[in-house]
Amino acid sequence: MIFITQLIYILEGQENIFNQFEDIAIPTILKYNGKLLLRVRPDDKAFVEASVEKPYEIHLVEFTTESDFDNFMQDEERKKFLHLKERSIKSVLLIKGIKL
Q1: pTM of the complete model
Q2: Tell me: the pLDDT tens digits for 8-49?
Q3: Partners of 95 in the beta sheet?
Q4: Orientation angle between helical segments 15-31 and 66-73, nearest 10 degrees
Q5: Buried/exposed 23-32: b ≥16 CB within 10 Å, e otherwise
Q6: Architecture of domain 2-97 in this structure
Q7: 73-78: which pairs have CB atoms within 8 A and are 24 or more residues apart?
Q8: Which end of the chain is more exposed for a tag (fewer CB within 10 A), N or C?
């Protein structure tokens, strides 16, 4: 198993466009032996301490193999909607890991 954590920073006012992209991308995870474990939209009270910008959303996703994750990223249907991602997301910090 591999785990992908994303800290997602969106452009102000682009929440609806971001959600349109997520409506496509999240169900696609299942096609590639993946599972969305967490999708968190933390408010200011959720942060005890931060030395980085607070993200709009935090995602934790599990894939069976690195190859499954790579295939998800290359999914042709998902690629058709990347323009929504590009219009709404300022940046993403993606962290790959394994369960210890």
Answers
A1: 0.90
A2: 999 999 999 999 999 999 999 999 999 999 999 999 999 999
A3: 5
A4: 130
A5: ebbeeebeeb
A6: 2-Layer Sandwich (3.30)
A7: 75/28, 75/31, 75/32, 77/24, 77/28, 78/24, 78/25, 78/28
A8: C
